[in-house]
Amino acid sequence: MPRTKEKVDKRTYAAGKPKQVVKQQNAKRTRCHRKRMKAEEDMKVAQRDLAKVEKELTLKEQFLEMMSSAPTPAQQRKALLALFAERGINPIEELMNFTSNDDVPLKERIAIWKELASYTQPKLKSIDVQQNISGEMKIMTVDYSKVSKDAIEKAEVIDIEEEYDEFVSDQDKHE
Q1: CA atoms of 50 and 44, how far apart (whole Å)
Q2: Of the four, 35, 70, 120, 138, which is 20 to 30 A from 103 by CA?
Q3: Closest Cα to residue 87, out of 95, 98, 79?
Q4: Torsion of CA 95, 99, 101, 104, to 10 degrees
Q5: What is the pTM of this model?
Q6: CB 40 within 8 A of CB 48
Q7: Cα 37 vs. chain centroid, distance in angstroms?
Q8: CA dist list (Å): 25 to 17, 28, 30, 38, 110
């Protein structure tokens, strides 16, 4: 029996595979290639971002290291005083010399005196006072349209304490 190619599924073949399968494989390769290219681009972007973050972190670490080794204000003050002593400068005397110089404008001399005064005179600060105050007050109202003058003069004021004598007339105070 001679061997003939029989097409069982009646599809055309290319290199031993049906053409439809070859097309699907090619399409899959193309999709995978695109995905790989996109993934590679994303990886490069992520590496750049990582490099930026590492650089910022390095800068922060350097800053923190510099801060920890920085001299304290007391150390800075001592170094400045040593520099003044080395050069024979007394800043207070120098400022006072400017205040006696007539060539220096009055505004600047006043500013110098204010600055010098801040080292010798305390600055006044406001004080917050908190206190609970309690008391009693009685208010009497009179409708003068209904009361005659005689009734007003005859009216008695009752329960007035000496603490609230500002509500009592001068005449009543002397009685």
Answers
A1: 10
A2: 120
A3: 79
A4: 90
A5: 0.31
A6: no
A7: 46
A8: 11, 5, 9, 20, 91
